[in-house]
Amino acid sequence: MSETKKFKTESKRLLDLMTNSIYTNREIFLRELISNASDAIDKYHYLSLNDENLEKRDNYEIRIDVDKDKRTICISDNGIGMTHDEIVNNLGTIAKSGSLEFLNSMSEEDLKNSNIDVIGQFGVGFYSSFMVAKKVVVETRSPFENQGYRFTSEGTETYKIEEIQKDQIGSSVTLFLKDNVNEEDFNAYLEQYKIESLVKKYSDYIRYPIKMKVKKEIGEKDEKKEVEEDEILNSMIPLWKKNKSEVTTEQLNEFYQSKFNDFEPPLMSLFINTEGIFTYQALVFIPAHAPYDLYSDKYQKGLQLYSKGVFIKDKCDELVPDYLRFIKGLVDSSDLSLNISREILQQNSQLKKIASNIEKKILAELEKMKNEDFEKYSKFFEIYGINFKYGIYDNFGEKKDALKDLVLYHSIKEDKFITLKQYKEAMKEKQEFIYYATGKSKTSIKAMPQMDMMKKFDYDVLIFSDDIDEFAIQILNDYDGIKFKSIASENLDLLDQEEDKKLDELKENKKSLIDKIKEILKDQVDDVVFSKRLVDSPVCLVSGEGLSLEMEKVLNNLPNSSDVKAKRILEINPNHELFKAIETVFEKDEKELDDYASVLYNQALLIEGMPLKDPLDFSNKICKLMIKAAK
Ligand code: ADP
Predict the structure, then answer these.
(1) Among protein residues, the one whose CA lies closest to atom 21 of ligand 1
(2) Closest ligand 1 atom to 96 CA
(3) Which residue among 39, 41, 140, 257 is best mutated to probe the pocket of ligand 1, counting the most ligand atoms within 8 A of its Cβ?
(4) Which of 64, 368, 422, 500 is deepest in the core (most CB within 10 A)?
(5) How far is the CA of 297 from the centre of ligand 1 (A)?
């Protein structure tokens, strides 16, 4: 039986990308195939522990066979193999749902222009074979089927699946190398030394022997004979089982790239080797770019879990707190039982201790990065910082003390990120609060009327551009005893006594006017007051204690929001020309004041970036006033 099937569209696109790629790092195809073979053996081993129908084995191996005449390289394993449906689902379709979404999100144009780093977002796996091969043949047999299958693809629209006789469970992937062209000589991959060096470079840690027939000379001088013998190319010691002092950062980075399919080295790599009450090794990495689906529901956090070098679980989420969900890596502990089930894992106190230990180590390493290489830390924070802000907020601030010195902010005065500590140290003598403003950009915040006083006193203001920011500092409450204050909150209290007195007097004198405006706007605002903060602007809207206007916006945008409202206070600048005009109107004809008050309030809303309740009415009133002014 033989059938011809079409690749799924996304797979076809990835294939095109691979076949036409001008990427110089083609050699990684080998590590990808070896890594698949190793995963397949892991799977077999794991299944055979609990499935009596699977023969227990101890002869696991990965083989590389080269045929120089046919120009083929064959990578074979005695792992789990694939059923017919698995071939279709795993090779005919991009296996990782994430990769698929990512590809779908790219336009044809993007794909054409993309360099390989884009591919690095999700790893290329099996398809990378097409960087060096014009034809790929996979022969495979799963223990759950009675016969084997041959998958053949020439990197075109379709692939073929045939039934074959195959006795051994496992897979072999044969690559028919591309023809040599001027710039590129694919024959290099047929050379023994090349394969040896690639395995050493990328796959040394693979725990199963990678065997290849190599030519050796044996015998005495006169009777030298060349024979072919199997040689194991890899040391088989998992990187994390090696002596920590012998493992270089380069090795860690290379391991990360091969294990987690990334074309970029990680931003940070950490090798933890702890002995004592509990013994474990961990390799933890922070990718240099956020996985593109990090914030989607489908993203699964977690570290791989091993016990005594044997793979147990792919994404063990108990090992990673939410705010570190972007880390990748693995943990190997000799104290965990192999057949550990999910439920048991969850309650495993050993695992909890390891998790908390790893968390501390990561935070310490980040703290170190912050102190020693602030630029790098800023880059880290740019990519992942928002998670830390959520981390402060989560679980009623359980982690706030651990995280408060690791969050960075932009500020009005600084061009780079600053810490809360740096803000505190730069505070002016009389300054009592850490001021912040919520807004999308520095420019928009600088233009806020509430900034007037800050400029006057030369106070720096933290820029809160993430929705979570205000919620996080509400949980923090203070930093080192210094409270936070929004420049848009009531009671900014920046005036000295004399100015305060003047304002009080004014309040007395103009009470009837203010009361009148309050009366007109009683359905819109909770209070109308003279502003202590405005210098150049006529009005602004501020919020009372508790919920801020920004938080109101965020909460009301949540899927099942319950129309919450912040306390609104309209502040009027008594020194502004506009206020003088209003006074005149009030004295002349009280009734006229209705329109003025309403326009004033709507202006304040606009400045805040809040929606107007009745834009048409606002526009009509402006028209009316303009026409009147021209008369
Ligand atoms: P990844 O390995 O990153 O999931 P690949 O494209 O490399 O992506 O492989 C797709 C899937 O094909 C694998 O997840 C695995 O299920 C299957 N596969 C690939 N190679 C083998 C193999 N040698 N033996 C068994 N299954 C394999």
Answers:
(1) 36
(2) 4
(3) 39
(4) 64
(5) 24
The ligand 1 atom at the shortest distance from the C-alpha of residue 95 is 10
| Number of domains within the chain | 4
Q: How far is the CA of 199 from the centre of ligand 1 (A)?
A: 19
Q: Which two tokens stand for residue 380?
A: 């880290």
- Angle (nearest 5°) at CA 219 between 217 and 221: 95
Query: Which has more confidence, 536 or 135?
Result: 135
Residues 23 and 97 in one domain: yes
- Residue 383, domain member (yes or no): no
Q: Which one-letter amino acid corresponds to residue 72?
A: T
593-608 and 615-630 are packed helices; what angle lies between their axes, rounded to 10 degrees?
120
- Same-domain pairing of 115 and 195: yes
Distance of CA 113 from the midpoint of ligand 1 (Å): 27
Instruction: State in Å: Cα 38 to ligand 1 middle.
Output: 10
CA distance 341 to 338: 9
pLDDT of 9 higher than 80 = no
Task: Give how far Cα 551 sits from Cα of 228, 420, 478, 567, Å.
Answer: 73, 21, 18, 11
Atom of ligand 1 nearest to the CA of 173: 23
From CA 202, how far away is CA 581, in angstroms rounded? 77
Based on the fold, state whether residues 214 and 297 are members of the same structural domain. no
Specify the CATH number for the domain of residue 430: 3.40.50.11260
Pair 42, 108 in one domain: yes
| Tokens of residue 153, six digits | 């693809």
pLDDT at 115: 43
| Main-chain phi, psi angles of 338, to 5 degrees | -70, -40
By three-state DSSP, how is residue 481 classified? coil
Distance 314 CA to ligand 1 centre (A): 14
Residue nearest to atom 15 of ligand 1 (CA): 90
Mutate to test the pocket of ligand 1, among 11, 122, 126, 169 (most ligand atoms within 8 A of CB): 126
Task: Write down the pLDDT at residue 109.
Answer: 58
Residues with CB under 6 A from ligand 1: 32, 36-37, 40, 77, 79-82, 90-91, 95-96, 123, 125-127, 171, 261
Burial tier of 193 (Cβ tally within 10 Å: 0-12, 13-18, 19+): exposed
Same-domain status, 495 and 482: no
pLDDT tens digit sequence for 103-129: 555 555 555 554 434 444 445 678 889
Nearest-angstrom CA–CA distance, 337 and 352: 15
Residue 459 scores a pLDDT above 50: yes
Q: What residue's CA is closest to ligand 1, atom 19?
A: 36
- Cβ 463 vs Cβ 544: under 8 Å: no
